[in-house]
Design brief:
CATH superfamily of the largest domain: Glycogen Phosphorylase B
Distance between the termini: 30 Å
Radius of gyration: 21 Å
Helix content: 25-40%
Strand content: 5-15%
CATH topology of the largest domain: Rossmann fold
Number of domains: 2
CATH architecture of the largest domain: 3-Layer(aba) Sandwich
Number of helices: 11
Order of helices and strands: HEEHEEEHEHEHEHHEHEHHH
Oligomer: single chain
Largest sheet: 6 strands, parallel
Length: 302
């Protein structure tokens, strides 16, 4: 992998690294390099079911050391404004959706969830709510499932369809026309401050949102009147929200409100321009002597 990375980046204008562990390969990147920080990895340790609890502390320490090293070795692009606290020299390029010209009116036969299927993301609450709602409304799940919820999914009712991993653009296209998009995150530190990409993606497709009251998610949904906020781990409240959305006037108005809010405040067109400006700045340092090619190159100047 190192030789391939070295070979390919010799002729590249820019390398963007998404996974923090891959920043360890930085010495073999021969072109300007950017680390795209799109998650609070240290805070997510508790949600990694494959990490034993006793190793949580050492894992967080290791992640912190890795992040500090990467921030010194790469130009840093941040998907969240809240990440500036950890990376004060980073440039914020929000992970906002591209709003589609096509609009499918929300129907009344199914709700959807797009993303990793896990306990921390509310799968127990979803399944319990679907049992209360009954067979008239289905739940489509698009995303890979954690091992500790597979048996739970196997026991789910006939109104739950598990699609497994589907590429995000395809999953969102298939989700169009749903009565609601579920975003039932638990109350965890890594969820409280983050811009809820899933919520924005539902809104961009005109899908009314049912979300738990994580501060950023609830603020966006309530200010835009694009969905319903329900308490944490409350399947009865989720079921009531879905029943409310069976009213076509309610769900169509929320769907339109969501799309309008995305156009006004969260459209990728704006953030794309910011990203291009940042990338141009990084690449331009080649001519200004801000980068050297090969192992041991100096950090990009700011």
């Amino acid at each position: 992998m190192a030789s391939a990375l070295s070979r390919e980046t010799r002729v590249a204008d820019l390398a963007i690294v998404h996974d923090p562990e891959l920043t360890l390969m930085g010495r073999w990147i021969r072109c300007p390099r950017v680390w795209d920080v799109h998650e609070d990895l240290a805070s997510q340790i508790a949600d990694k079911e494959w990490i034993p609890g006793i190793l949580g502390g050492p894992a967080r320490l290791g992640v912190g050391l890795l992040e500090r090293w990467a921030a010194r070795s790469f130009d840093v692009m941040l998907a969240e404004p809240t990440y500036v606290d950890r990376f004060p020299h980073g440039v914020v390029v929000r992970n906002t959706p591209w709003i589609q010209d096509r609009y499918v009116t929300p129907g009344d036969s199914r709700v959807v969830y797009v993303g990793r299927v896990s306990l921390g993301r509310g799968i127990e609450t979803m399944l319990a709510a679907m049992r209360m709602i009954g067979p008239k409304v289905g739940l489509d799940l698009y995303g890979s499932a954690d091992r500790n919820v597979v048996e739970m999914l196997d026991r789910a009712g006939s109104n739950v369809v598990v699609h497994g991993f589907v590429p995000n653009p395809s999953a969102l296209s298939q989700a169009e026309g749903a009565m609601a998009g579920l975003a039932l995150l638990d109350d965890r530190p890594d969820y409280r401050r983050s811009i809820p990409t899933k919520v924005l993606e539902y809104m961009s497709r005109g899908i009314p949102v049912v979300t738990t009251p994580n501060p950023v998610a609830s603020r966006i949904v309530e200010e835009s009147a694009a969905g319903i906020v329900v308490p944490y781990r409350d399947p009865e409240a989720v079921a009531e929200a879905v029943v409310r959305l069976r009213d076509p006037v309610v769900r169509e108005e929320m769907g339109r409100n969501g799309r309008q809010a995305i156009r006004a405040c969260y459209d990728w067109t704006e953030d794309a321009g910011r990203m291009l400006g940042f990338v141009d700045e990084v690449v331009s340092k080649v001519g200004a002597g801000g980068w050297c090619r090969g192992p041991g190159r100096k950090q990009a100047s700011r």
